[in-house]
Amino acid sequence: MTGSEPGQDTTEPSASSGLRLGLVQSRCTPDPEENLQRALEGVREAAAGGAHVVCLQELFQYPYFCQREDPAFFDWAEPIPGPASRRLSGLARDLGVVLVAPLFERRAPGLYHNSALILDAGGRSSGLYRKMHIPDDPGYYEKFYFTPGDLGFQAHATRQGSIGVLICWDQWFPEAARATALGGAQILLYPSAIGWFWDDSPRERREQLDAWETVQRSHAIANGVFVAAVNRVGEEGAIGFWGRSFVCDPWGRVLARASDDRDQVLVVECRLPEVEATRRIWPFLRDRRIESYDGLLSRWGSKPDSPDL
Amino acid sequence: MTGSEPGQDTTEPSASSGLRLGLVQSRCTPDPEENLQRALEGVREAAAGGAHVVCLQELFQYPYFCQREDPAFFDWAEPIPGPASRRLSGLARDLGVVLVAPLFERRAPGLYHNSALILDAGGRSSGLYRKMHIPDDPGYYEKFYFTPGDLGFQAHATRQGSIGVLICWDQWFPEAARATALGGAQILLYPSAIGWFWDDSPRERREQLDAWETVQRSHAIANGVFVAAVNRVGEEGAIGFWGRSFVCDPWGRVLARASDDRDQVLVVECRLPEVEATRRIWPFLRDRRIESYDGLLSRWGSKPDSPDL
């Protein structure tokens, strides 16, 4: 084969092709400053391991306070920019890494979001994501704390590629992954805080974990993108956060997976040209029936909502 | 716990709760009449095994003729109603089963669809589905044969429950599963014809099969529905169809899985109350951000299409 044949230019220049992604999985204590210090240390460790992009876990500065509803926890929220975002920005600049930093955002008095700041390698903001899908289940009382995001689904251009950020509960919604991929994201990052309850049986634990990983791997497959989740680990109150941060490629193949019981920093090579190579083999974007997807904008069914009693 | 406590009525009366689903996986020969006879025999076998709903595989009457483009194959298409649909309807009536019967539909001279007829247990039509997403890859030249469907995504009310039918390539599109589930489907059926090429390595085969199953299991999880695929098996030309028909529950747990190399009839109990029970635990339908999903109706991105050269 010569250099001019089709197929020869599917591999982009190596400088832009290999994105080394760092995931910082850790346990959290009740002390936000201690958690922030540990996270900064994790970012340094990932960078030392060659990471170009580092992603921290959801609400990494805090114990998972959403296990109960207490307005005092709003004291922990910070404006953006604010003290934490400035320290994180400084670190991104010093290390020359892209940093995805989840923050408990104080937007106005009485208005708070579960957010993530995307810091480019120079330390400047490449964008902000505000968690769009807010859960509320026993032990995960997030609707009490977080106003649903109003920034929609975006891809953020960085020096290392186009990055989509979604947060935890978003991972169960194919719409979020698709909309972000259509915005141009080559990789979807899911900072998370998900775990088991102590009375879940071993079988229930295995099945929950499998469903969680399966649905995220399917976003990689359906959209031809890399997907990574960064999940907290460790016991907090009634929840045992299950860690198992992972990265998968556009085929849904898991490239690396962290433990379910300890702090861990993963650095994983994501070959971005595989995005287009995979989409050429699985050309789903070619065949979407966009003129027939109106039903996706409905809450339920297509019948009028006036009950015929 | 007494009968009046919450949680007691999550189980519907047993008469309506257990849907026994039959899947008929088989190889096909070059002779349509022989294939039809084998399919009718498979439906009888499934019914004898207690199936209430039986699903046949995509284009079950034919060898997979889409491996090459030849207008002579349009001779095989039939109107609906037509000879094949009448025989299938008669069998559904005689056996008292709901029958999902894929057909090569001749809608008008020069206008053909890859369709599936949903026959209720009395033999009458409960609806027609026309494959919405049409593939076209080397060896799967379907865009030559089939006009994309114009009936959209629907749930079909039958005596045995609300059934969504999608066909093969549709299985890679989360939009199709979601729209059909929002129409009220409790179970999604995917008649299929997918296989390996002979030069695919064992590892490639394993990974393709895994991606195929993963993306369909994710539809079950994301939508809280049962999902089943019915795939052909056997060698035809350059393709080895991989069978592996399966059924999974709303947790994405595989309840049964057929072999990859032989004819097989599966009959699997689907406990329909698990649809609501699972959605109560994973309330994704509650939290969809329908006001923010406009991007799903776009081909790509949100930028204007006028190039700024």
Main attributes of the structure:
homodimer; 309 residues; alpha/beta; 6-stranded mixed β-sheet; 8 helices
Explained architecture:
The structure is a homodimer of 309-residue chains. With 309 residues, chain A is an alpha/beta fold. In chain A, helix 2 (32-48) runs parallel beside helix 3 (83-95). Chain A has helices spanning 14-17, 32-48, 83-95, 142-145, 174-182, 202-223, 273-281, 284-287, and strands at 18-25, 53-56, 98-108, 111-119, 125-130, 155-158, 161-165, 187-192, 195-197, 226-231, 233-236, 239-242, 246-248, 254-257, 264-271. Chain A has one domain (19-297): 4-Layer Sandwich (Nitrilase/N-carbamoyl-D-aminoacid amidohydrolase). A 6-stranded mixed β-sheet of chain A has the order 5-4-3-2-1-15. Chain A has a 6-stranded mixed β-sheet with strand order 6-7-8-10-13-14, covered by helices on one side. In chain A, strands 9-12-11 form a 3-stranded antiparallel β-sheet. Helices cover 27% and strands 28% of the residues of chain A. Chain A contains 8 helices and 15 strands. The first copy, chain A, is globular, with a radius of gyration of 20 Å. Chains A and B meet through helix 5, helix 6 and helix 8 of A and helix 5, helix 6 and helix 8 of B.
